[in-house]
Amino acid sequence: MLKIFHAPRTRSHRIVWLCEEMGVPYEIAAVKFTDPSAELLAVNPLKSLPAMQDGDVTMIESIAMMLYIMGRYGPTELQLQPSDPNYARYLQFLLFGEAGLAMYGNPLVATKFFAPEDKRVNWTSDYLKATFAKRLNFVENHFGNSPYLIGDRFTAADISVGYTLGIAGFAGDIELSPKLQDYHDRLKERPAYQRAVSCSL
């Protein structure tokens, strides 16, 4: 059974949400982010989340975990295949949710909560916030009138990007546009999303 080291508002939410969507059994190892357990440190000396174990397999990158779970425990409708005409778009947004969006949130969170008071507003934090907002706009411009990133089909790309939309306000005090807020609200209505959130309570 998968073991997911998990704390609220961290990238581990993606993994729990994916498992709930797919019906993959898992167990939660709750982590206090400011006081990582010895068990987490043994699995991931970087002290970061997520971390996941599956038998002898250990992983610490959320998108890699998603690909692993879908490949290992699929097939699943959440994953597009190379023969699908939307495969490239799916891959782009699956990875963009982390590499193009969430990566800008880490330094914003660190600056917001851990930097000395007189260093919390600086050129770098302003740049990160503006870049985050610009990239959210990039996501919005790719929707058209569709409910999800890949038209009418909910996929793992929505889990990847949806998680990051959920931390935009927390990380950078960025307010989502009405269209992105509607999209995020639609994701939050999914029963699997709600079950994943309940794991953090």
What keyword list fits this structure?
201 residues; alpha+beta; Glutaredoxin; Glutathione S-transferase Yfyf (Class Pi), Chain A, domain 2; 2 domains; 4-stranded mixed sheet; 54% helix
SSE map:
Blueprint: E1 2-6, H1 12-22, E2 26-30, H2 38-43, E3 51-54, E4 57-59, H3 62-73, H4 87-101, H5 105-114, H6 123-141, H7 156-172, H8 178-188, H9 191-198
Parallel strand pairs: 1-2
Antiparallel strand pairs: 1-3, 3-4
Helix pairs in contact: 1-3, 1-7, 1-9, 4-7, 5-6, 5-7, 7-8
Describe this structure in words.
It contains nine helices and four strands; from the N terminus they run βαβαββααααααα. It is α+β, with helices and mostly antiparallel strands and 201 residues long. It folds into two domains: 2-78 and 194-198, Glutaredoxin, CATH 3.40.30; 87-190, Glutathione S-transferase Yfyf (Class Pi), Chain A, domain 2 (Up-down Bundle). A hairpin with a 2-residue loop joins β3 (51-54) and β4 (57-59).
Judged by helices, strands and strand pairing, the structural class is alpha+beta
Indicate the low-confidence ranges by residue numbers.
none
Q: Cα distance, first to last residue?
A: 22 Å
CATH topology-level fold name of the largest domain: Glutathione S-transferase Yfyf (Class Pi), Chain A, domain 2
